Amino acid sequence: MNTQTRGFFITIEGPEGAGKSTLAQAIEKHLQKSGKKCLRTREPGGTPLAEQLRDVLKRHKGEERLHTATELLLMEAARVQHVEEVIRPALDSGVCVICDRFYDSTSAYQGGARGVEAGVIEYLNNYAVSGCHPDLTILLDLPVESGFARTAKREQTCGKFDRFEQENIEFHCNVRAAFLKLAEINSSRIKVVDALRTREEIAHDVEILIDECLFKVQ
Ligand SMILES: Nc1ncnc2c1ncn2[C@@H]1O[C@H](COP(=O)(O)OP(=O)(O)OP(=O)(O)O)[C@@H](O)[C@H]1O
Ligand SMILES: [Mg+2]
Questions:
Q1: Is 137 within 8 Å of 9 (Cβ atoms)?
Q2: Mean of the per-residue pLDDT values for the chain?
Q3: Furthest-apart CA pair in the chain: how many Å?
Q4: Quick one: which atom of ligand 1 is closest to the CA of 165?
Q5: How far apart are the CA of 25 and the centre of ligand 2, in A?
Q6: pTM for the complete prediction?
Q7: Which of 22, 154, 155 to mutate to test the pocket of ligand 1 (most atoms within 8 A of CB)?
Q8: Confidence band of 159 (pLDDT split at 50, 70, 90)
Q9: Residue pair 15/171 in contact by the 8 Å Cβ criterion
Q10: What are the distances in angstroms from CA 14 to CA 127, 141, 153, 176?
Q11: End-to-end CA distance of the chain, in Å?
Q12: Considering only CA atoms, which of 113, 103, 165, 172 is closest in space to residue 142?
């Protein structure tokens, strides 16, 4: 009989430059301090094959258009690889998984911003994860312009824009609005955190949310 307690599954969502990757590191440190084994990963990506799909999704160029349906299906294909090869096995062996973006990003980008019907996205998200749902989702919320101001200052990426970052302000405002709507609908799982504050203030609030949630789960 498997008596291993399932690991805790946290996802971090939000618009470009909200501080997701920064927060993922802080969460990992926090969980490790309380003796938990952690795995920090990201979407799209997280396995060699899924990282190849990420590259297509973020950097495809040339005359042939990458259609919205293709984009959606590639996101979901990458997610299947990630869930089955990495996330589910980690959770099953008691490891806490911290994932930088997950299926709510598909709902916000391919749904809210590209306009794919919510029911189609929901069906595909559920199909891809096959029961592997986050226990807690942190939605870092901030105005689109503030997120871009942050990424513009980030050394590794300043001046380099991927296919999504190249979209106009309206697209990114639709992403933000879609995230906030998702949080309203799924209020027990998705917690909205004001990302316009310092890294320390954000991490402090999120640590409280995590501890409350872990206490409930155990
Ligand atoms: N609370 C904060 N206040 C100010 N700057 C921040 C804050 N959090 C992160 N940053 C900085 O803003 C930039 C973007 O942060 P980060 O890379 O964590 O965002 P992200 O949401 O992962 O971005 P992307 O959507 O591009 O993956 C980085 O240079 C980071 O150091
Ligand atoms: Mg990031």
A1: no
A2: 95
A3: 55
A4: 26
A5: 11
A6: 0.96
A7: 22
A8: low
A9: no
A10: 23, 6, 18, 7
A11: 19
A12: 172
For ligand 1, what atom is nearest to the CA of residue 24? 18
Q: Is pLDDT of 156 > 80? A: no
CA 128 to ligand 2 center in whole angstroms: 22
From the alpha carbon of 14, which atom of ligand 1 is closest? 21
Task: Confirm if 66 and 163 have CB atoms less than 8 A apart.
Answer: yes
**Which residue has the CA at smallest separation from atom 19 of ligand 1?**
19
Specify the fold of 9-217: Rossmann fold (3.40.50)
Q: Which ligand is nearest to the CA of 105?
A: 1
- Convert the pLDDT of each residue in 59-94 to its tens digit: 999 999 999 999 999 999 999 999 999 999 999 999
Determine the Cα–Cα distance for residues 90 and 156; give it in Å rounded to an integer.
Answer: 29
Does ligand 1 have an atom closer than 6 angstroms to the CB of 151? yes
- Under a CB-based contact definition with an 8 Å cutoff, are residues 165 and 16 in contact? yes
User: What per-residue string of b and e applies to 142-158 under the rule 16 or more CB within 10 Å gives b?
Assistant: bebeebbebbeeeeeee
> Which tokens go with 116?
């794919």
- Report DSSP state, residue 63: S
Token reading at 142: 């901030």
CA distance linking residue 6 with residue 20, whole number of Å: 24
Show the CA angle centred on residue 30, arms to residues 29 and 32, nearest 5°.
65
Tell me: the pLDDT tens digits for 165-211?
999 999 999 999 999 999 999 999 999 999 999 999 999 999 999 99
